[in-house]
Target: Cell division ATP-binding protein FtsE
Amino acid sequence: MAFSYNISKHLSELETPVIRFDQVTKTYNTGTTALSNVNFQIFKGEFVFIVGSSGSGKSTLIKLMLKEISPTSGRIFVNRRDLSRLRRSQIAKYRRGVGVVFQSFRLLKDRNVYENVAFAQRVIEIPASQIKKNVPAILSVMGLADKHNSLPGELSGGEQQRVALARALVNNPAILLADEPTGNLDPKNSMEIMNLLEEINKRGTTVVVVTHNKEIVDMMQKRVITMNKGILISDEQKGGYTHAN
Ligand SMILES: Nc1ncnc2c1ncn2[C@@H]1O[C@H](COP(=O)(O)OP(=O)(O)OP(=O)(O)O)[C@@H](O)[C@H]1O
Model:
């Protein structure tokens, strides 16, 4: 009996989604409904693209996951936490547990590469001795071992995005959210960033990528959630960009 109990417990853990949207609607103060009754679940270790034309609600999804905004109705769970129950004092800590990268990189322009990444560790009070090991290790994974002392302005767009990825990943988050991570990059650098995201995903991080990049979505054959005017219109394993226009 004990044996079967353990198996079912294990299965239920495997099946717990890391992100769950439950009938989520978001209407902004202006009256625009950006999302209507959206439902989906993302499981541990998945790689998911979110696609859709401009204004279809993709960034709104990301902002909701980061609790930068709250839904008008419905519920959102991330790592089993109901985000509506997060107290104000818990929000900063919650966000630090989710890695995020944006189209615009958002690096500290007056700090070098090492400092940009080390900063993410200092705010969660990782001991200095540990930071000295962790930062070079992740910079090396990102192919930036020789760029520790460079300022962001001295790097190419692709390199800057790799610094942003290193910063998002140095604290070992269970989830990485990327909002148009290749929006400012040429095709070669875009592919490099996608290869890194795939590598990170293979190491166990759940990866969610919002993108307009049709070629990459079609090539990578991952799960694709397609939004249109705030409605989730398709959710396909090994999907393509087909419905997004
Ligand atoms: N802060 C806001 N206040 C009012 N309306 C907003 C706000 N943010 C977004 N919207 C509206 O909500 C809808 C969805 O916007 P959202 O930014 O989520 O779309 P998107 O799919 O990310 O678009 P894009 O691909 O252009 O970035 C749009 O109609 C937009 O104008």
Notes: Residues 108-172 form one domain. Residues 28, 30, 32, 34, 52, 54-60 surround adenosine-5'-triphosphate (CB under 6 Å). The beta strands are 17-27, 33-43, 47-51, 73-78, 81-82, 98-102, 175-179, 206-210, 223-228, 231-236.
